[in-house]
Amino acid sequence: MSLEAHLQQAVLLKKVVDAIKDLCKDVNFDCSEKGLQVQSMDSSHVALVSLLLRESAFSEFKCERPTSLGMNVDSLSKILKMCSPSDTLKIRWQGGADTVSFQCEGGEDRIADFDLKLMQIESEHMEIPEQHYKVVARLPSSEFQRICRDLREFGETMQVKASKEGITFSVQGDMGAGNVLLKPREADKLEDKVSLTVHEPVTATFALRYLVNFSKAAPLCGSVELGLGPDAPLLVKYDLENSDNGHMQFYLAPKIDE
Amino acid sequence: MSLEAHLQQAVLLKKVVDAIKDLCKDVNFDCSEKGLQVQSMDSSHVALVSLLLRESAFSEFKCERPTSLGMNVDSLSKILKMCSPSDTLKIRWQGGADTVSFQCEGGEDRIADFDLKLMQIESEHMEIPEQHYKVVARLPSSEFQRICRDLREFGETMQVKASKEGITFSVQGDMGAGNVLLKPREADKLEDKVSLTVHEPVTATFALRYLVNFSKAAPLCGSVELGLGPDAPLLVKYDLENSDNGHMQFYLAPKIDE
Amino acid sequence: MSLEAHLQQAVLLKKVVDAIKDLCKDVNFDCSEKGLQVQSMDSSHVALVSLLLRESAFSEFKCERPTSLGMNVDSLSKILKMCSPSDTLKIRWQGGADTVSFQCEGGEDRIADFDLKLMQIESEHMEIPEQHYKVVARLPSSEFQRICRDLREFGETMQVKASKEGITFSVQGDMGAGNVLLKPREADKLEDKVSLTVHEPVTATFALRYLVNFSKAAPLCGSVELGLGPDAPLLVKYDLENSDNGHMQFYLAPKIDE
Question: ∠ CA(A122), CA(A125), CA(A130), 5° rounding?
């Protein structure tokens, strides 16, 4: 057995897959003793998706030697729809096999399994250089999703402007111009907080259609982290419940005004 | 500042706009010291929409001189989707400006605003003569909506027949003929009541597609008032929560049988 | 009056009609002193639908002499949408009339009625021979619906394999191969149980699109019964709440492998 990975809750992988479903068609799951990793450009080769599921996220994890398993994201999503939220999930791959097996159990008397055909996907390994962001903002992930969706109605492009006073999301279009301003906000629950770490104020502009897709990862984590720098790609990051277990990251290059 | 109007609950304007969204494309908001008013034919020039938001509906209202602000209803609806149900709304227009500003606040740490471009809309001011209806019926607005929707499945035209005994909504079509009869009904809550004030029994016929659209205003008020007269337009009226604050009225000419 | 049938709850007929709506276009309701019966091939002449509503299902039932009333299922569904879940329903047909009347009452102050035009439908009376199934399986109807829907995503055909150990539903397609295994399961509520009566293990293959449609009858009954035999049609059976009152049965011929 070259890979054996058990998740206590199948729903974790389900949320991960749903989060990238509208961005990527086929992806490589890079397996190593450290866990599972996906790095992929979105279908239009503009945004970068980076998932890390550390071995600690699994109740059992064994990977004999590093390997890349290419899967169709849509198929994966259909397989995971067979799992109930509380089901456990076992992923198994025998070295050399052309299928990977997903087995999902809810109690002892219901077992659903699927042998998914693997694909050869050309993998362009990307080195993501560690960034030192001028601004790191943390806000409720549902709020971020709502802002992206609301502003998407008015235009294609969103300007983000962050300073110590707050973070403003702006749009301009045929109907007029709109802004949503969030000020830093204390709260009991981490996911209700708005916090800003500002080394230098930043203003940058991004394509809304990607942000709308990134923000669909909201079910993964109550809060989202945005990393901003001048002329740097935007980082949109969701921790997996326990941040030690990994994260889902999206990167998007800024739009440069002519 | 030529207009400054604050609503305690943005949701009121949201419901109003949703109620006319499927009928009118662009409308003039006529502002005066009395409040805001919309009078508009529907896009097919068959039905008449008449909205009155009295200044008492606003927590603050100032209008220096009467003016007409032309807006696209769909844009307005998108702007108001940015407001949460409990948000406050501030509408501002500076004399002469070509945009009107909507600012929606939920607490102090989230402010969404939008500057909507104004439009020139030819306004045909209509005098709606005070009618003395032969029948005034009051019924639950959700019931009215359901009847219109259900009967719409069977035909294009609805006959309304009202007497002291009750009000009957009828339809005829290829599948057959159907009726819904409501009898006067006492109830604790006003919105559950069915009451009929009948000076003279009335029978009249109307195009269902408009009634279905009117009845979408149900979220504005738990009960709806129908005014009927022989050969007179039908009145469909929704009070704004507190009826002193205004109302939403629809008028529809009857169909004359040949 | 040739037929007078009263149902305490209109919703029973509503569920029945919804269950056959996607299978049959026009059907004959065969009325006799025993109750109402529908036997019809589905529109593609592959599956057989058999409904029995015994006279005991009605609070009042009178049928002077056997007759067949041909109705359009879609129209019937629209009429029954006029009924609230707790409404009573009265079905009336006067011998020789070309319409059948449905009257649905919720309390005394709301009466909806519809005179549905009858149709002449060529009725091919089918004798369904009593089958002695090698396997009779009983499982939660919602579970059966979910399995059919989930597997439908992967292929056109489902293999059912039943033995004393359990029942396995399998599919094969371009993405790979999947199975759902249910083992016998005790439970307090009948509708949570999985039970298998096995005279001889059976393996048979069926077209999933019909099974998906059959399984929509789930609201009729918490559990569903499957009858299987080698080379025999599959029986999918839903009792009406009280099984003495009748049942809804679907039959589907197996796919023969070449």
Answer: 155
